[in-house]
Amino acid sequence: METEDKAGTELLPLNTIRVETALSRYPVHRLARKGNIKIEVSEHNARKETALQWKVSYNSEYGQPGPLAYKIDTLIINRRIEETSRPIPRMIRLGSLHEICRELEISEGKNIVSIKNALHQNASAYITAKILYRLADGTERTLEAGFTRYSVVLTGEKLPDGRKADGVYIILNDTFIQVINGAITRPLDYDYLKSLPPAPQRFYELISYQMYAALKYDRPRARLVYSEFCAHAPQTRHTNWEHVRSQMSKVHRLHLQSGYIGKVDSQQTTDSDGQPDWIMLYQPGPKARAEYRAFTKRGLPTVVEIDMSEPCLPLADPHTELERELIERGVTSAAAVELSRNHPEEKIRAQIERLDWLKEKKPEKIDDPAAYLVGAIKSDYAAPKGFISKAERQRRAEAKQARERQAGEERRRQQQQAARERAEEEAVAAYLKALTPDALARLEAEAIAQASEDTRKNLNDPSMKSFRKSLTSMLVKEHITRLMAEGTLPALEH
Predict the structure, then answer these.
(1) Run of H or E including 233
(2) What is the pTM of this model?
């Protein structure tokens, strides 16, 4: 249906594709163009038993399924599965290699070979899984198996029914078809999916679960843990916030521009192994709201009205910065408020700094960081042995820098003084070399006349006869240097 184009609205074509939720949440493909990445997801229960396992092994002849294989799976094969009737048939025609290229909007020629290789990468990806998934009727089912998802039959080859293939076909394998025939499906905007590069596309597939839940239950934000995104995308996981921020900003950019996300917030936390982690919080944008309205209407309209004037207001945070720092270290919200109300900020920050130092230097000393921090603030624990506060480290660093600057300045002064002295010596030597014998004799007489009485006595002492020449030369050089400094040095005679 079509809606009236009102002021402050944008019409968004919505081309819906329904994708099963059982297997698509787990990774199969490397999204980076080059290299290999370990594709494995595992979770353990409180008894340290494996509760979930997902691992993908690839065929060394064809390589790890990469970005092109991912696009074929999500944009071509999922589309064909969506277009079939239920139950899903075992044999599905994808189209010719030329048709696949055109649908992916890539040039033909060499890409035909790449398409074939990507199909073989997908078909030969071997999955080892132990997962729990939900059926369309709401019941849960466990899958514990090793399998490939489908086989590929290229144009001209023989199909299982004896016919000659008039295009590329996939033959769904037993385990795969059993799962996708019964699993719940979720709708996605196919045109939007197709417009995205691999990493933002994968993010859209994963965040859609939480985004729909946030909108359905009227929650202000959808939630996605950074480490889970890296495991399910898959992407390289970083532990430094600046690297995380840079990595995720590239993933978020197109979704912020399209209006699928209205605002992004993050909260620092740690995973079960104590490694730095972040909870990513996403305010649904106008596009996400429009998708939800369209997907919940009967008949799934082909055009949806997006109210672009819908405000994406900042979400109010009731906590102060100090309270947020306590919460980020595991302290409950109520305890953080109580501590900040009853204890000086300087005292709380000192204990936070000491806890962070202990976690880095002596993690074995801290079983429960949050409990330790609460006790440290209330009981005013002394600084641990070897701890140096940030302020003291900064003071020492500044003192060291000052000493280094002073030493550097002294070295430069000495170097400059030595350079000046060398220049003076060279100038005096050049002047002496250019003097006539008469001029030199006059300067020698002047130098001796201005020398001290003791120096003159030494010159006239018979025992100093062998040193008279060198002493006279030194007096002349000193006299010339003095005259140069005064600017009264006689001009050279020509």
Answers:
(1) none
(2) 0.61
